[in-house]
Prior knowledge:
Layout: H1 3-38, H2 43-57, H3 61-74, H4 81-107, H5 110-118, H6 123-153, H7 165-176, H8 179-212
Amino acid sequence: MGHEEFVFLLIGLKWTVLLSAVGFVCGGIAGLGVALARASGIQLLERVTAGYIAVFQGTPLLMQLFVVYYGLALVGLMLDSWVAVAIGLTLHASAYLGEIWRGSIEAVPRGQTEAAKALSLRYVSRMKDVILPQALRISLPATIGFLVQLIKGTSLASIVGFTELTRAGNIISNQIFQPLTVFGIVGILYFLMCCPLTILGARLERKFAASAR
């Protein structure tokens, strides 16, 4: 494999990183709203968000991307493949992160909430200053683990013709007929992205487990 092919792979890598970042950041913002709704104590909000989470956790990401790109086109909303994949990953991430963070919010000792109420803190202050900082700490290992899955999930963007790392590898493989070499390099690039995050998540999990004893 030559220099030009490797540069093409790096361009695909760039789009993989950008897709992962957009999906994680936008999904995180929406996921926080989902988590707060799930833990709000308002029955209607809890039921709606529970159904939302069930849909996205109960269906494959591949199908979700397919529906966003091709399904919206059927009703006249034509989206660029980049936009469609970004929306699909955002919706997917918001459901998973919302459930992760909902569990973390509920894992904060109830006494913290009662103490905040005793200090006459309103809901926003109670969440912002007392509950969410502790919940974020609890959720970090699972959140990082989901980010790793999201990075690998971007490989499904090829279903709508978007050229990220995996599709770039497939294009080059079809041109030079060296699939083992090409996908070996693709695998190494994914490993270099995901392995440090996996190690970080494992270390944080051990650290938090030790501090909880």
